[in-house]
Design brief:
Elements: E1 7-16, E2 19-29, E3 34-38, H1 45-52, E4 63-65, H2 73-78, E5 83-86, H3 99-109, H4 114-127, H5 143-155, E6 161-165, H6 173-185, E7 189-193, H7 197-203, E8 206-211, E9 214-220, H8 221-225, H9 228-233
Length: about 240
C-alpha cells in the first residue's frame, strides 16, 4: 500500500440549518483498507458519507478523497469517477426502465464509447450475480436484488473508494454471505457504515465510532468492537463472538 492516504479528513465540521451534524472529525483511510463506521442512529454516519461524496458542501481543506477536495467545484465534478456511494435505501438510486439501463447511466454520462459502457455494465452485473436480470425493471426486483443492483451501478464507474451505507439491510443469509465474500475480494478501499457489527467484524480491519457527530473511538476492529463497556456507552453491543 502507498504511504499516501486515499482519504484524509481533518477537522470536518458540518451543520444542517439549526442543527450541528459533524464536529471536528479527523481520520485517514489507506488504499485497500476497509473501515467500519459504527454508531447509534443520528450519529452522523450518512452525513459523513454525503460530505465525502461531495453531495453536502464543506469548507476547503476539510477532506481530500483520492487527491480531490470535495469542497472545490472542479474536484467535485471528478468525484463520481473516484468515489461510489451506495445509499441505505436502494430505491434512491434505481430509476431507469431496465437494470442494464440503470447501470449504464453513470458511464454514459462520462462520455464513454457505447462499447466500453456495455463492457462495464456486463462486468458490474457479473460481479453482483445479476446478469440474468439485466432486462428486468428495477421496481420488480426484490429488496436484496435492489441492494446488489445499486452496488452494480456504482461498480460500473470503477471507483477507488466505496461508501456503503447499511449494505446488509434487506439481504437474506445467503445474500449476506455473498456480500461478505465479495467485500473480501474487493481490491479497492471501502468505508462500511453498519449496525451489523458481525458484518463489520468479518470485513473491516479498523473501526471508527461516531456519536452525536463526534469521533469518539478508533482502532483495530476486534479491540474496539470487543470493548463491551465502550460499545454500551455509545448505544451499541459487542458481537457475541467477542464477548467474554
Amino acid at each position: 500500500m502507498s504511504d499516501a492516504p486515499l482519504v484524509s479528513v481533518r477537522g470536518l465540521t458540518f451543520s444542517y440549518p439549526g442543527r450541528p451534524a459533524l464536529s471536528e472529525v479527523s481520520f485517514e483511510v489507506r488504499k485497500g483498507e476497509r473501515i467500519g463506521l459504527v454508531g447509534p442512529n443520528g450519529a452522523g454516519k450518512t452525513t459523513l458519507f454525503l460530505c465525502l461524496a461531495g453531495v453536502l458542501g464543506l469548507r476547503p481543506g476539510m477532506a481530500t478523497v483520492a487527491g480531490l477536495d470535495p469542497a472545490t467545484p472542479a474536484d467535485r465534478k471528478q468525484l463520481p469517477t473516484r468515489v461510489g456511494i451506495v445509499f441505505q435505501n436502494s430505491d434512491d438510486q434505481l430509476f431507469a426502465a431496465t437494470l442494464a439501463d440503470d447501470i449504464a447511466f453513470g458511464p454514459l454520462n462520462l462520455g464513454l464509447p457505447r462499447e466500453e459502457v456495455e463492457r462495464r455494465v456486463n462486468d458490474a452485473l457479473s460481479r453482483v450475480e445479476l446478469t440474468e436480470l439485466r432486462d428486468r425493471a428495477p421496481y420488480h426486483l426484490s429488496g436484496g436484488e435492489k441492494r446488489r443492483a445499486a452496488l452494480a451501478g456504482v461498480l460500473a464507474m470503477r471507483p477507488e473508494l466505496l461508501l456503503l451505507d447499511e449494505p446488509s439491510i434487506f439481504l437474506d443469509p445467503r445474500g449476506r454471505r455473498e456480500l461478505i465474500r465479495w467485500l473480501g475480494d474487493w481490491a479497492g478501499s471501502a468505508i462500511i457504515a453498519s449496525h451489523d457489527l458481525d458484518l463489520v467484524l468479518d470485513t473491516c480491519s479498523r473501526v471508527i465510532v461516531l456519536e452525536a457527530g463526534r469521533l469518539v473511538a478508533e482502532g483495530e476492529t476486534n479491540r474496539i468492537l470487543g470493548d463491551a463497556a465502550l460499545m454500551e456507552q455509545h448505544g451499541l453491543e459487542a458481537p457475541h463472538r467477542l464477548r467474554r
